Structures are given as structure tokens and as C-alpha cells.
Amino acid sequence: MRKILIGLGLIIGLLLVIWAMIGPDWRRLMKNLNTEPDVLFWTQAEREAGFRMLDRLPQIIENRTIAAGDNFKALPEGAPLSKDMQAEIDRYMAKNNMASVVILQDGKLRHEQYGLEFGPKGRWTSFSVAKSFTSTLVGAAIKDGYIKSVDDKVSDYIPGLKGSAYDDVSIRQILTMSSGVRWIEDYEDPTSDVALFNVQEPEDGLSSLVTYMRKLPRAHPAGDVWNYSTGETNLIGVLVREATGKDLATYLSEKVWVPYGMEAKATWLLSPDGEEISGCCIQAATRDFARYGQFVLDDGIANGERVVPEGWFAEATSFLYDTKYDGQGYGYQWWPNGDGTFEAMGIFGQGIFIDPANQLVIASNGNWTSAVGYKDGERDERTAFYRAVQRAVMEE
């Protein structure tokens, strides 16, 4: 009996050592693990544990690495924000379940803060912030000569769409989500398109995405009506892959991550077809999300070389369609605000806010209580926070 008790004690001791060694992120995840791949229906605690670990759960979803280079772009320290503004950041982060806020001005680090036991070396998921990265890859493919023009037909690059409602839709129209093809994006409805397209089985030798999208009916003439569609951003990803012959993670690494000097590797989650989910889910350090905002402010020039055509970001971030949401418009997968500022936005509080007039970038990650932040007012809180930071830097 004594030997049995000693053996049990040793086993328990070993388990405790392993528990301590795996680190807080894994311990949090093991306490709140959900193997359901649809994060829209995870609990608050499951999301908080999972959003920082999505690329370490291959049993749920695979990913591809976005490699960083040997040299990274330093973020020189800027003057600290006022004590009042720092107190407002404390309040904002605590109230809205924010994991991180990184503020750059003139390429300098004005403020960096973390919550939810997240930190600068972690990778948090982007959700639809990735859409704006995907849009940039279209610009890069045009600059590289892989795509002729945004006025080309989508079906010229994705033959599986020929004969579908997308047959006469232009690249510009899917960039602006104005294809006129019916799509329902309701994050609380498990029967909406945004929930169903990822479980589509591939047919006729096509990817599951193209299989799903080619079946959708036309709702409006192409170009007439804006309708938010993650499915169409995923089609943009297919288009870039077909045009360049490269996977998106590799192309993003080649065109932005390495030449602009991102600090750490990132990852991009993959669909069941083994392709990057281009409408979602780049996992990166918040500092590198902020650097991407600075890359946009730098007009897409990395290491002295132009990555996208001249004027690309001016057009991509223009108010091309009125979304009727909080006065925001839509460009090429960007949300312009009508005052010269624009945003990349993802559900549950992910965002990059860019203010060219003040050379300001605010990158943030979070875990709101609802996907779009209306239930408990986080979306309005974020808008007010952006404006508060703008005022603070303008009044200095």
C-alpha cells in the first residue's frame, strides 16, 4: 500500500510539474476548451482562452505561417500620452474586455497596453481585419502584373464561377461587396451563409468555397447595392491564389511581412480545402497589426520599394459605398468614416484605426460580449475611444 501511495504521489507531482510548465495560455485553454470550430457560439471564457491560441489547435483548424524576416522595423518611443488619456485607456480596456491597445503616431510608439493576461509576444486573431490585408494583396498582384485590372471579371481568374451569378461580376465589385449576389451574414444565426459556407462539401472538382458561392442567386444588379459578404472576401483570396500561383501567407510574407519588417511571424487559418480563409483570421502580435497600419500610412512602400500601385490606398480607403452603419462607408475591404479616417474591423473587438491627417494608428484586440458589439455598447465605446485619442494628440 505504501508503495502504491508513493507511486500515486509521484504521478500527481509529475502532473503538477507538467501543469506548471505548459504555461498560463495552455492552462487557460485546457480549463475552457471548446472543440466546436464555429467560434461564434463559444462562451466568453472560451473565446478569451481561444482567441490567443487558434493557431495552436490543429485538431480544430490548421494554419499556415506568415514568415517574418531577420530584420524588423523598430518602433521608436514617442512622448507618452497625457495622464488623463492614459486613465481613459485603463477605463476603456477594462470595461470592454480588451486584450491590447497599441498607438502609433508619426511611426513612433505613443502607448502600448495589454489586458486579459495577454502580452506583446502573443498572437491574437484578427477576424475580419484580415479582409483589409487580402485587399492589399490584390493591389500587390496588380503591381506585380498577375492581375490586369480591378475591372476584370472574377470568372476570368476563377473558372469555376463561369455560368454562376458571379460570371459578369468584376474584381472591383467583389472588393466593394457590391456584386449583387445574395448573401446573408448573421453571426447569431447558424443557418445563415456565413455559418454554412465553411461546412460545404466540395463538388465537381471545385473547392468547397467555390462550390457554395456558385450556387448563390442574384439579388440585385451588379454594382447597385452594397451587402456585407465574408464569402466574397474569400473569393478574393481564391482569385489572388489563382492569379499569382502562391498561397496567401507566402505572398503576404513576401510583399509585406518581410520587406516592411514585421517583428514576429504570424499565421493564417486554413479552410477545409487547405486554403487561407481570406475573409478572416490572421494571428499576429498587436504591434505588427499596428505596423501594418503604418505601412498603409506609408502608401504601401516597404524597404524603399512600392508594393501596390501608386494611389492604391487612396482608392481602397475611399467612401465608395454607403453602408448605412454608423455613417461609415465601404471601400476595397476598408471602412472609411467620411472624415478622412478609415478602419479595418473584425468581430469581438479587433480593429486597426488609421487617421492620415494626424499620422495616427490605433491597433487593438479584444473579446467583446457579442460579435458586433451592439449588445453591451462596445462598438460605440470603441468609436468614442478613437475620437478621444484623436483629440488628445491634436490638443498637445
Task: Describe what this molecule looks like in 3D.
The strands form four sheets. Strands 3-2-14-13-12-11 form a six-stranded antiparallel β-sheet, sandwiched between helices. The chain contains 13 helices and 14 strands. Helix 4 packs antiparallel against helix 13, helix 5 packs parallel to helix 9 and helix 5 crosses helix 10. By secondary structure, the protein is α+β, with helices and mostly antiparallel strands. The radius of gyration is 22 Å and the shape is globular. Mean pLDDT is 91; it is low at 7-22. It has helices at residues 2-21, 23-31, 44-50, 83-95, 129-143, 171-175, 193-196, 208-213, 230-244, 248-260, 286-297, 312-316, 378-394, and strands at residues 63-66, 98-105, 108-114, 124-125, 266-269, 282-284, 301-302, 305-306, 321-325, 328-330, 335-336, 342-346, 350-355, 360-366. The chain is 36% helix and 15% strand. A hairpin with a 3-residue loop joins strand 12 (342-346) and strand 13.
**At the third CATH level, what is the topology name?**
Beta-lactamase
Indicate the structural class: alpha+beta
Helix content: 25-40%
**Rg, please?**
22 Å
The global form is globular
- The appropriate CATH architecture is 3-Layer(aba) Sandwich
User: What is the CATH homology-level superfamily?
Assistant: DD-peptidase/beta-lactamase superfamily
The overall strand count is 14
Low-confidence stretches: 7-22
Give a quick account of the main beta sheet: strands, pairing sense, barrel closure.
Answer: 6 strands, antiparallel
Q: How many H/I helices?
A: 13
**Overall mean pLDDT:** 91
Terminus-to-terminus distance: 74 Å
Strand order of the largest sheet: 3-2-14-13-12-11
**Percent of residues in β-strands:** 15-25%
Q: Give, in order, the helices and strands.
A: HHHEHEEEHHHHHHEEHEEHEEEEEEH
